[in-house]
Structure formats: structure tokens, C-alpha cells
Design brief:
By secondary structure, this protein is α+β, with helices and mostly antiparallel strands. The chain is built from twelve helices and eight strands. Helix 2 packs antiparallel against helix 3 and helix 3 packs antiparallel against helix 4.
Length: 395
Amino acid sequence: MTADVARGPDTAPATAAFREVGSLGEELRRARDALELADALTGGDHAPGRARRASRDTIESALDGAQLAIIDRMADPTLTPTARGRLSAALVQICRSRTTIREAETHRRTQALPSVAAVISRLRSAATVTALLERAPSEVARLGYDRCLVSRVDDGWWIASSTFVRDDAEFAEMITAAGSRAPRRIDASLLESELVRDRRPVLVTDPQHNPRMHPELLSVTRTTAYVAAPLVVGRSVIAFVHADESRYSGSVDEFDREVVGVITESLGLAAERAAYHERLQRIRSTLSDTAAGIVDLVDEMVETDLEPAPSVPAATGSGTVRATRAIAPSRAAPLAGLTARESEVLERIADGDSNGRIASSLFITEATVKAHVKHIFRKLGVANRAEAVSRYLRA
């Protein structure tokens, strides 16, 4: 059932007794309707203009003023029964609006924590800080915001990095471009300098008249209110998170500041984890390269030790000397300068085998094969595999 007010010229407003409570934004819009009706009946001026977004606190304050105005008007003994009926219905609507706004706000707060936990869980899978910052805008938007901007803080400069705008990817690109083409030095002239100094989220309620705004971003977004929070890793602020246009209330308020603050603090922990993961990957890569180098060195030393020794003259029974057959490979110089394993590798190169197949057939690592190939090229004085094969075939 609905609580819409019927406003005929000669009929009293009718209000349904019960209905489902909508989102905070929906309830605030209904409250505006109730305030406009109260103003029409009392001659007051409590309803905020439709051109501007009003916060929950503003609407509730207006409802209090409208309620008092209705009560004062109803005290007039000259009122007709019809006028008194209209005022009574409007009073019920005012009281109902106050209740449903608070119910919607309670529901919003109840839903916030599970949503934050789900976002944090998804972002934990980001393996790098860069990937985390790219995914952050769309994930923050899941908490109920139509727009979110994530910016890098690079050596004291504010540089827009990635943006999410619900159902408008082109507008998101425009916002990112505006902030990346015009980076701003983070100093006292920018309100965001407080994010770096205090490391606490802020709520900005009137950016269009605040001289400490980022002019290029403000001209594109035309935001009327936003929340911003610093993303801290270790002792450094590495990014800013900005969000506005809450789907729950239309604008943003102190509760949104708290929500964005919590999610950004969690993002900082996720970024620390990603940075730690990146460092481990670099250490692993370094150790792997070092280990491969050691294996190559050992293989080369072993292969050199296993090279066939030159032939030795053998004595005959009659005292004469007879040369035995040489054991060394019958390769013409410079192929004779290759070790046995290098010769094996060269033969397989000539057969067209890849490094991977050579490694598999000789039971060595691919890194070792690469080391042998490098030594072969150097000893033969060639620059590539084709020249090495040509030299091998001519031998």
C-alpha cells in the first residue's frame, strides 16, 4: 500500500495506514512531498527547493518546523472542518515521514557491514597494488555509491587513476582524464591535504562554493557533496578514494563518511598484503635466477671434467711405439673446442629441437640449455642458431 496524499481542491488528503518502507532516498523524496503539502496548507516555507539535494538532517529539521506550523494553524478556531481535516492528514503524513526516514536509515546501516565485508573479501584476491587500485572504484560502488574515483598520491601529487560511474563508462573516462591530465600538488590550497595530514575521511557538503577544490575535477563531476578518505600503506598515503551520489539518500552524509573510511582502511590493509606479495615474487625470481646460474656453473664444470682425454701412445712388446686411436670427437676445429654436452646440444639444435625439447631429452633444465647455447655461440663465433647449424654442417 502507498502513503501518497490525494490533494483535490475540495477534498481532504487521504493517507494509507501502512506501506513498505523504501530506501532512504525514496523516503526523503516522500518527505519533500509532505513538506510541500504542509507549506501549501500553512503558508510556510519549510520544504527545501527541488533544485538542491537535502540531507537527512535537513529534511528532519524541516519536518519539525512543518509539524509546529500545522499545530499552530490547527489552533485557529475559525478553521472549517474541511481545512482542519486536511491539516490533520498532513500532520499524519509529516509524522509518518519522520518514522519511515529513521527506519530506512536503520536498514541502511544494518546492510552496510555485510556489504563492506563482502567487498573486502573480493579485493583480497588482488595480487598487486596496481590491480587493487584499478578494481577499487567498482567495488566501493557496491556499497551504494553511483560514482567513485580512486587517485594515486605520487611524490606529493594528486593524480586520478580510475573511476566508476554507474551505467556510464564514458563519463567515468572523462572524470579520470580530467584528473590525470591536470595533476595537482597536494598543499594547503587543496582540502585533500587534510587527508594526508590527518589520515581521516572527510565529508564535503558544499564543494561548488569551496575554493579548496580541484577545479578540473569539480567542473566535470559537478558534485554537490562527496566523501573522501586516504588509503594508507605503512606510514604513507598512497591514494585517495572519493565517492558521491549515494543510491540510498541521493547525497552523502556522516554515515557515508564512516562507511568509506572503513572500506578505505581495509583497502590499505589489502594493499599492504599485495605489496608484500609483490616483494615475495621479486625475491623468488631473484633466487630462481641465482639458483639457475649456480646450476649452469656446476654443469659446465662437470662437463669440462668429463671431456675425453687425448690419446696416449702405447708400447708394444717389441719395444716399438704404436699410436692408439684418438678418443676425442672427430670434429674439425673449432667444433673440437666444444665440450661433450655442448656438442650434444648443438646436434639437437641442428635437428631443429627447441630449448625445451633439448632440456627434456638431456634431463637438464632449460636455463642450463640456454647457458650451453650461449657458450656454443661464443666458441663458434656465431650470432644465432642458424649460423651455428651452418658451421656444424660444414664441419
